Every structure is written in C-alpha cells, then in structure tokens.
Automatic annotation (TrEMBL), chain A:
Gene3D superfamilies associated with the record: 1.20.1260.10
UniProt keyword list: Oxidoreductase
Pfam families: PaaA_PaaC (PF05138)
One biological process term in Gene Ontology: phenylacetate catabolic process
Presence of keyword Oxidoreductase: yes
Domain of life from the UniProt record: Bacteria
UniProt source species: Rhodoplanes serenus
Tagged with keyword Lyase: no
Taxonomy of the source species: Bacteria, Pseudomonadati, Pseudomonadota, Alphaproteobacteria, Hyphomicrobiales
A GO CC annotation given for this chain: cytosol
Name recorded for this polypeptide: 1,2-phenylacetyl-CoA epoxidase subunit A
InterPro entries: Aromatic_CoA_ox/epox (IPR052703), Ferritin-like (IPR012347), Ferritin-like_SF (IPR009078), PaaA (IPR011881), PaaA_PaaC (IPR007814)
EC number: 1.14.13.149
UniProtKB/TrEMBL annotation, chain B:
Protein name according to UniProt: Phenylacetate-CoA oxygenase subunit PaaC
GO terms classed as biological process: phenylacetate catabolic process
Gene3D superfamilies: 1.20.1260.10
Gene name of the encoded protein: paaC
GO cellular component: cytosol
Pfam families to which the protein is assigned, alphabetical: PaaA_PaaC
Length: 332, 256
C-alpha cells in the first residue's frame, strides 16, 4: 500500500540481545489490544518497522500531491478547482501529522525528508503514474483513495497509539475524497460521449496500478508475519486487495464502465470477485524506480527543497535575531 | 466554446472586477501547490487560495444575478477572454520567487482588508454579506504576508535583496488600487461602493509599518501601470486564462 516498499523483518541478533521478559510483556500488551505509546518500551525492530512504515506513508502523501496538483490550475469548474485544491491541501496535512507521528519514535522530519530526497526511502508506487486527463482526478479519488482506505481503516487499530490516532483523522478525510472522486466519475459518465470516454480511459490506466498498491501477493510477502503479530498489520495484502475488488467492481458497473480485465468474474461459491493475473514485473519496475514518473516526482521534490532553501534560511536567521533581541531586552 | 458577452451595467462591472481580482490571485496562489518552501507554507498558501476562490465564486454568482442573463459563476470565469477580464494588473503578475508572491499578497491584502471592512456597510446587502466573510479572510492574508515580508526583509542578505527587488517590481502596479472611473463613481454615489481614495492612507500606513519592520525602503511613487479594470492587461493574464479555461473550452457545454 502506501508502505509497500518495506523490505525486512527482524534482525535475529538484535532480538536476542533484548530482555526476553520485556519482550514477553510487550507481546502480552499487544495481544490484549493495548496501545503502545512513545515512552513505552518496545523492541527495536518494532520501532524501526513503524518508522519506516509511517515515514513511507508520509512520503506518499507528499509525493501524492504532485499527480493531483497537476490539475488544480486546469480544473473544469470553480467548484472542482476549490475541492481539488482543498484535497491536495489535505494530503499535505496528512503528510505533516504522519511525520509528527513518526517523530514520536525518535526520528526527525528533516532526516526522513532527506532520505526521500536521496532516493533511499520508498513511497507508494501509484504516484509514479501520470495524470493525463481530468478524469484521472476522478479515478484517483475513487480508486487510489478507495484502496488507501481499505488499508488504512485497519490501521486505526494499529498497536502504536500515535499512528492509530493519526489514521482515524486521515481515514475520515480519505473517505470524503473517495466520495468526491466517485462523484467526478459519475458526472463524467452521465455527461457527453467524450466525457464518458475520458472516464473509461482513466479506469483503464488506473485499475491495475491500484491493485498493485496492496503490495506483492501473500505468497511473496516477507514481512507480514511480524507485522501481524505486532498488530501493525491486521490483514494480508491479498485480503485487502480482495476487499477492494469486491467493493469497487459493482461501483464500476454502476458507472457503466468496463473493468479492464477480461478474466474478471464473480465466484458464486465464495461470493467474491476474482481478477486476472497482475503484472508483478511492472510493479517491481515501478518500485525499483523505473515507473513513468519516478524520476520526475523526486526531481520536482528536490527542486522544491532547493528553491525554498533561501526562504528557510531567512526564517531561521530572523528567528535567531528575534531571540537575541529578546535576550538583550531581558538582560537590560 | 465561444466566449460570452456580458452586459456590463455599473453594478455588474463593479462586482466582476472584484470577482476577477479574487479568482486571478487565488489561481496564482494555487500554482504554488506542491512547490512551497515548507509544508506549513503549503497549507497557508492553499488556505489563502481557497479563501480567494471562494470570494470569487460568491462575487461571480452575484454578478450573474445582477446581469440576469443566465450566466453562472463558471460562465463568467471560464468563458470570458482576457480583454473582458477586469482584475488589477497587480494580481495577475507571475508568482516569481516566494518574495514576489508574499510582497504581492501584502500589497493586495493591505488594500483588500480595509476595503472589505468598509464594504460591510455597503447599501448592497449581498456585497455587505460577502464583505463580512471576506474581511475575516483578508485580515489573515494580511497578517500572514506581513509576517513573511518582515522575516524575509530582515532575514538574510539574500532574502533582503530578493524582497527589495520584488517590491521594486510590483510597486508600479499599486497605483491602480486607488484608480476610479465612471463605474466607481456611480457605485460610490449609490452608497454601494467605498471610495478607494479613502483607503489610501490606511494602505500606506500598513505597508510602511511592515516595510519598516522588514528593514526595507518604501519605493517612491513613479509612473504607475494601469488598465486592468478596462481589460488592458499585461501579457501574463492570457496564459493564466489559457490554463484556467482549458477544459471548458475543450469540451464545450459539458457539465463537470
């Protein structure tokens, strides 16, 4: 999902060094559904997994501003323009409080941002796809935010308190965005032939990348076990993907759109939709940095940091001057 | 799609001018999205942009009602050419660096804030209601941009220099804030509009105070650019509208 680049599990040596009693007590608290708070004892690997997961989630929000921001100046009505600007502002807000949640684990926002800019941190693969038409804004709200919600609702019960609490607010806003995106699609599908074609084209391009958002299939996922035991993750990638497909296919039908999967079928026996094979090679390429917009997204983030450097320097210099004035006044 | 032709009574023109100011400046601020020097400032720029787009929507709707020709907010925003736009030249000036954007915001908000406050006693009930909301918003825009201009002016030598340059670049567009023509005279006469001349001292005092704290010098009033109110714009507006109006012009008559 927004944190699909998570790579490793637990370092065995490290764990042996930690007090077995503390570890047992920690696991008991998790099993009892207690929240772990910043000052509580926690295994190093738990801390590290969370820092990576929360910061990747934050990076995804910040990078995710770009594909949608691409249409703010071209939104087709004043109402849509205001809604999109507000939505992208929300994403930035999510980024801010997710960084703040990660900071409770002892890592500074600057450090996390540096890792992103250095290309060392991951963010969701979905944001490496381009937004080519206005319908993409509808498709992102409907599908990308829809997929994000599937993943994030269980995170509201994540064992780490600050992350769980941040997710409650994020989820509220995301489900608003999802409805807004679906409403854009609905308007297009009830509009002119050209508008409907635009909506279908957007679904064609976003459908498969959205299924990939949930990460590799369970058979290939390395770190689900630990994350599940620690109640950071409560459903597997495949379970979440299935929930998403089950929820989304009927929505596509209601719009009168065709899901671009000739193998898609409803399984009467299980009551689930079954989709065709996902192109995992494409997913690996995008995660490895070879997606259509990977270079452009990071480049833009770096340039923004660079262009703003003099402003941040000015703000720091001014704050310093203010402080010394205050000190001088206090001394006098 | 072909452009619309607006029947401009003094009231329609007067309201359209304010609507265009708000939309064009709001659009400029929205161009910052994803490019702000820090995340907190992303939020602030979007806030101000949203306030202005909201003001524009209320004003366009009212202009459309006053014209009574069936033009809604989108028809007025998306289907008028640059010669029919009536905004101040100041607000259409490109974002430039962060100093240009903040100085532009300060120069506009130092005017708009007392303007909307005065408009709260307009004899036109709709404009008075719009003013009551806009005044609260512009008070924040003024405070925010003033804080930044002070920080940048009194920050580093580089930020000081950039801000001083922004001020020189934008100053020639400030005269237009206080220009009046027959439309304004009619509206002032009717008790609908405030006389911008009455805001000039407040504006100067506000700007002088901020520039003083920013260790910047207020430029002398030289030759002032004007023409925005009658549709004679800088070259920048056409590009802004090309982008803004793209979808409505590409698929004419559609519902979005």
């Amino acid at each position: 999902m927004y944190t699909q680049g998570l790579a490793s599990g637990v370092d065995t040596n490290e764990r042996q060094l930690e007090d077995a009693a503390l570890l047992q007590r920690f696991q008991e608290r998790i099993d009892a559904e207690e929240r772990i708070e910043p000052n509580d004892w926690m295994p190093e690997a738990y801390r590290r997994t969370l820092v990576r997961q929360i910061s990747q989630h934050a990076h995804s929000e910040i990078i995710g501003m770009q594909p949608e921001g691409n249409w703010i100046t071209r939104a087709p009505s004043l109402r849509r323009k205001a809604a999109l600007l507000a939505k992208v502002q929300d994403e930035c807000g999510h980024g801010l409080y997710l960084y703040a949640a990660a900071e409770t684990l002892g890592v500074a926002r600057e450090e996390m941002v540096d890792q992103l800019l250095a290309g060392k941190a991951k963010y969701s693969s979905i944001f490496n796809y381009p937004t080519l038409t206005w319908a993409d804004i509808g498709a992102i709200g409907w599908l990308v935010d829809g997929a994000a919600i599937m993943n994030q609702i269980p995170l509201c019960r994540c064992s780490y308190g600050p992350y769980a609490r941040a997710m409650i607010r994020v989820c509220k806003e995301e489900s608003f965005h999802q409805r807004q995106g679906y409403e854009i699609m609905l308007t297009l599908c009830r509009g002119t032939a050209e508008q409907k074609e635009m909506a279908q084209d957007a679904l064609n391009r976003w459908w498969w990348p959205c299924l990939m958002m949930f990460g590799p299939p369970d058979s290939a996922s390395q770190h689900t076990d630990t994350s599940t035991r620690w109640k950071i993750k409560r459903f597997t990638n495949d379970e979440l993907r299935r929930k998403f497909v089950d929820a989304t296919v009927p929505q596509a039908h209601f719009l009168g759109l065709t899901v671009p999967d000739p193998e898609l079928r409803f399984d009467e026996a299980t009551g689930h939709w079954v989709h065709g094979a996902i192109d995992w090679d494409e997913f690996k390429q995008v995660v490895a940095g070879n997606g259509p917009c990977n270079t452009q997204r990071l480049e833009r983030r770096r340039r923004t940091e660079q262009d703003g450097a003099w402003v941040r320097a000015a703000a720091r210099a001014f704050a310093e001057k203010e402080k010394s004035h205050r000190n001088a006044a206090a001394a006098a | 799609m072909t452009s619309i032709r607006v029947t401009e009574t003094p009231l329609v023109t007067y309201v359209l001018r304010r609507a265009d100011d708000a939309l064009v400046l709001g659009h400029r601020l929205s161009e910052w999205c994803g490019k702000a020097p820090m995340m907190e400032e992303e939020m602030a720029l979007a806030n101000m942009g949203l306030d202005l787009i909201g003001q524009a929507r209320a004003l366009y709707t009212y202009a459309g009602e006053a014209e009574a020709a069936g033009h809604d907010e989108d028809a007025l925003a998306y289907r008028r050419d640059e010669r029919a736009y009536r905004n101040l030249l100041l607000v259409e000036q490109p974002n430039g660096d962060f100093a240009v954007t903040m100085v532009r915001q300060l120069l506009y908000a130092a005017y708009a804030d007392p303007y909307w406050r005065a408009m709260m006693s307009s004899r036109d009930a709709t404009l008075a209601a719009i003013a009551a909301k806009a005044e609260k918003e512009t008070a924040y825009h003024l405070r925010h941009s003033a804080e930044w201009v002070v920080r940048l002016g009194d920050g580093t030598p580089e930020s000081h220099e950039r801000t001083a340059r922004a001020l020189m670049t934008l100053w020639p567009y400030t005269g237009e804030l206080f220009e009046t023509d027959a439309v304004d005279d009619a509206m002032i006469e009717a008790g609908i509009a405030v006389d911008p001349a009455s805001l000039r001292d407040t504006w100067r005092a506000t700007v002088a105070d901020v520039l003083g704290r920013a260790t910047l010098t207020m430029p002398a009033d030289g030759y002032m650019q004007k023409g925005g109110r009658s549709g004679r714009h800088s070259e920048h507006l056409g590009h802004l509208l090309t982008e803004l109006q793209y979808m409505q012009r590409t698929i004419p008559g559609a519902t979005w």
